Amino acid sequence: MKEPTAMRRKYLGLQILRFVAAFMVLVTHSGYYASERLAGGFGYWKNGAAGVDIFFVLSGFVMIYSSTKLFGDPKGWKIFAERRIVRIVPLYWLATTAKVILLLVASGVVLHAKLGMFEVIASYLFLPSRNSTGEIGPLLGVGWTLNFEMFFYFLFTLALWLRLNVYRFVGSVLILLSCGAFIRHSEWPAISFYLKVSVLEFLYGMLIARACMKGRHLPVNAAVAVLLLAFWALVTPWQPMLRAHAISHGLAAALIIYSMASLEDRLTRIPNFVLYLADASYAIYLFHSLIAPGVPAVFAKLHLTKPWLSIICSVLVSLGVGSLIHSCVEEPITRFFRDRIKIAGKKVIHLPNTT
């Protein structure tokens, strides 16, 4: 798996996609909050939820691209696991704790969650559980994607520990889980949460990374065309594909990642604020579900029934607060743990986050 030129690439274009994906989800959720709390029946843009598909493919790509040196290393599994825990867990636990506190002190403000001991524990452990309404999901609404992420990291760690071929082992498990989606019943235990076609998106990212590391990129013109068409397919309700929603979104996200990676050498002038927002995308994604609903709630108190203005304000406030959390909380915490966890005599190296 050697491709010197590819290994020197930073793939900043994929960093940009991290923010694009988080922004898509933020816009859709802001529209949902405005419709729910301010203007019932308001027709908001729902297809931004497909940003999650971009996240999953990105995760598969980054895990392969950043961890190839760990393949065959007896301690590779430990290095990988600690890197992921340091990068993902602290901020997620803080966001979950903020949600728990909100439920305790202002339960009337939160519309879709009630406290249950088992649910709280499961949320902190990234385990699927049924909430007070009977649905499978953690306390933090967006946390369901982290449940998938951590499960993928577990499979990856297991493959490294057992010294198995990562592509074959992880790929086989993901394919089996996706097949289970076609027989899954809503009344099955919470563990059936993992039986979804969307788990294949991690595999798509792994295979794209492998191709890119071997220098197999799309020609520039083809990459531009594929990028535009894939985004169109991802964010517009193309009727013939609606029944294959999970499959079509995953393939569209995969093409977006592959085409953007192929254009990396052409991305020479990316504004610093864009890269900053990309770095802050994890904090923005995690905390926006705690921040954005407050805007339409305030608008309702002021009798200001302007849903589009509510959406714009929700987006801007979430971006601002999320960026502050990134700079003032996420970065110091990550640096604190990274500087104190030593593996094989070396400090943990920062890996780009994908969520």
Description:
With 355 residues, the chain is mainly α. The chain contains 14 helices and two strands. It has helices spanning 4-8, 12-37, 51-67, 76-105, 117-124, 143-161, 166-180, 200-213, 220-235, 245-262, 272-279, 281-291, 294-301, 307-340, and strands at 342-343, 346-347. Strands 1-2 form a two-stranded antiparallel sheet. α2 packs parallel to α12, α3 (51-67) crosses α8 and α8 (200-213) runs parallel beside α10 (245-262). The longest helix is centred in the C-terminal third of the chain and has 34 residues, at 307-340. The protein starts with a helix and ends in an 8-residue tail after the last strand. Mean pLDDT is 87; it is low at 1-7 and 343-352.
Residues in helix, %: 55-70%
The geometry reads as globular
Structural class: mainly alpha
Report the sheet-strand fraction: under 5%
Stretches where pLDDT is under 50 for at least 5 consecutive residues are 1-7, 343-352
**Mean pLDDT across all amino acids:** 87
Cα separation of the termini: 26 Å
Please sum up the structure shown.
The protein is an all-alpha fold and 355 residues long. The chain contains 14 helices and two strands.
